[in-house]
TrEMBL record:
Family: Belongs to the TatA/E family.
Main location: membrane
Protein name: Sec-independent protein translocase protein TatA
Keywords on record: Cell membrane, Membrane, Protein transport, Translocation, Transmembrane, Transmembrane helix, Transport
Gene label: tatA
Polar residues composition-biased segments: 57-85
Primary role: Part of the twin-arginine translocation (Tat) system that transports large folded proteins containing a characteristic twin-arginine motif in their signal peptide across membranes. TatA could form the protein-conducting channel of the Tat system.
Amino acid sequence: MGMLKPWHIIVLVIVILLLFGARRLPDLARSVGQSLKIFKSEVKDLTNDDKPDQPASGGTTSSAGTVPPATSGTTNPASPPSSGGVTPPDAEGPKA
């Protein structure tokens, strides 16, 4: 009863062909393959997320003494942003 015989497989293939049709089987197989590929990549990403990041160098590094670089731009937060040369419609003046 637990043995799968060759004629069982043939009957199963015939039933699948009758249910889905010969045209839809390649599309079905392609979509299942793409789904498995996405699933495998997501599982790989999850296992990589679980591993702790190790420093590239063998020595110990301390981030306590690092200071972010200063910006050299002259930005004034009090000044309004530039309109890019576009004049607002109400600033054109009265139309005659």
